[in-house]
Amino acid sequence: MEFKEFLPSDILKPYVRHYYIFESDADIAFDDTVFPSGDMEMIFNLGSGEWQSAVKDKFLKTPPIELWGQITKPLAIKSKGKHTMLGIKFFTHSAAYFFNDELGIFNNQVSDTGDIIGRPAKQLHNQLLEAKSAERRIGLVELFLLKQLVGSEKKSFKINKVAHILNSIKQNAAEANISYIASKHNITARYLQQLVYRHTGLTPTSFNKINRFQLGLKLIAKNQHPLTSIAYQCGYFDQSHFIRDFKSFTGVTPSSYLQHTTPVNQLLQPVR
């Protein structure tokens, strides 16, 4: 397996955390679990392999152009065959620039971007299949995103406010008082909740928990500190609360996670 990240051009840096290309030459099958990241992703499948994601009590094949909504609980996936995937990882707030729907409708599922965006996304997929170099593929994606941004000026004020709210929550992870943050931004707590959910698919509380979970995941992977220390670094008051949240997002305890790290989560953990 090979995973490479690419930074966006200056004009798209406010919208895209990074692009990535994931390639697997091994024609094998495996099961894995995807954890909450706090970000939405668009993924173009360019290889011959097949991905499936869990939907209730069965697995369904994912579409050629995947839109990953916010994942708020562990999501089981299956893979078989050889893969080439090009992914766009948006910032938590910035996917709202590219989709007109309330983003919560995409939560905990892999949707078909071709159905949501339509012909432009399908045309891009065909162009990416024909392109041979990573540079050419990234260039095509950037041109597509710039075209999709046209006409999004009306959204900018609200989305920028959401970005500032999320930043306030991140800066005070242990004391993310929604009423206090709302007063700082001259809005009501109820409107803050609605604004953040509509433009991210997450409630402020869920965003805070996932943000702390991701920090904990990185610290656990380094295996340099005891769990009690990691819990405090992530803004928890005790170790048991941290373990409870960690298990709700992964399905396993921190110690079990270290013993059974999985291929996709090792490669695709977000860089923040």
Shape: globular
**What is the strand tally?**
8
CATH architecture label name of the largest domain: Sandwich
The count of helical stretches stands at 11
**What would CATH call the homologous superfamily of the largest domain?**
Jelly Rolls
Average pLDDT, rounded to a whole number, is 91
Rg from alpha-carbon coordinates = 19 Å
Largest sheet: 8 strands, antiparallel
Give the total of domains: 3
- Calculate the terminal CA-CA distance, rounded to whole Å: 22 Å
CATH topology of the largest domain: Jelly Rolls
The percentage of residues in β strands lies in 15-25%
Tell me the structural class: alpha+beta
Q: What's the CATH C level of the largest domain? A: Mainly Beta
Helicity, as a percent range: 40-55%
pLDDT < 50 stretches: none
Order of helices and strands: EEEEEEEEHHHHHHHHHHH
Account of the 3D structure:
By secondary structure, the chain is α+β, with helices and mostly antiparallel strands. Helix content is 44%, strand content 23%. Strands 1, 2, 3, 4, 5, 6, 7 and 8 form an 8-stranded antiparallel sheet that branches.
Compose a concise summary of this entry.
The protein has 272 residues and is an alpha+beta fold.
Topology:
Elements: E1 2-6, E2 16-34, E3 41-45, E4 50-55, E5 58-61, E6 65-68, E7 75-90, E8 110-112, H1 113-117, H2 119-130, H3 134-149, H4 153-171, H5 178-184, H6 189-200, H7 204-222, H8 227-233, H9 239-250, H10 254-259, H11 263-268
Antiparallel strand pairs: 1-2, 2-7, 3-6, 3-7, 4-5, 4-7, 6-8
Helix pairs in contact: 2-3, 4-6, 5-6, 7-9, 8-9
